[in-house]
């Protein structure tokens, strides 16, 4: 899934779905900050833990690691990528 978002004037939280509800594990999100000013997107898991902060002109790729050996599943930050939007 690719999400292009404009925070609309101030920093905004982006809450990812619960890892267990995303099937299959291995699914990724690419979130693009399309802000026209210095506004951040703060990416959080469903427990409100911050995973990444995406600044203006940046994007982030997040991966659902799934469950391994009965342990809690998790979202993993793969990359923060600078972008040029026009």
Q: Major sheet, described briefly?
A: 4 strands, mixed
Uncertain stretches: none
Helix segment count?
0
Distance between the termini: 21 Å
Strand order within the widest beta sheet: 1-3-6-7
Topology order in helix (H) and strand (E) letters:
EEEEEEE
Name the beta content range: 35-45%
Categorize the overall geometry: globular
User: Roughly how many Å is the radius of gyration?
Assistant: 13 Å
Helix/strand/pairing category? mainly beta
List keywords for this structure.
86 residues; three-stranded mixed sheet; globular
Summarize the structure in words.
The chain has 86 residues and is mainly β. The protein has strands spanning 2-5, 12-15, 28-33, 41-44, 50-54, 58-64, 75-82. A four-stranded mixed beta sheet has the order 1-3-6-7, with no helix packed on it. The two termini are 21 Å apart. The model has no long low-confidence stretch (mean pLDDT 87).
In a few lines, what is going on in this structure?
The protein is an all-beta fold and 86 residues long.
Element layout with pairings:
Blueprint: E1 2-5, E2 12-15, E3 28-33, E4 41-44, E5 50-54, E6 58-64, E7 75-82
Parallel strand pairs: 1-3, 2-4
Antiparallel strand pairs: 3-6, 4-5, 6-7
């Amino acid at each position: 899934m690719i999400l292009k978002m404009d925070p609309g004037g101030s920093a905004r939280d982006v809450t990812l779905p619960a890892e267990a509800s995303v099937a299959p594990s291995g699914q990724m999100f690419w979130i693009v900050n399309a802000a026209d000013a210095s506004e951040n997107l703060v990416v959080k898991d469903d427990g409100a833990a911050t995973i990444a902060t995406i600044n203006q002109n940046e994007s982030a790729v997040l991966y659902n690691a799934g469950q391994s050996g009965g342990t809690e599943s998790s979202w993993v930050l793969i990359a923060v990528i600078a972008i040029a939007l026009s």
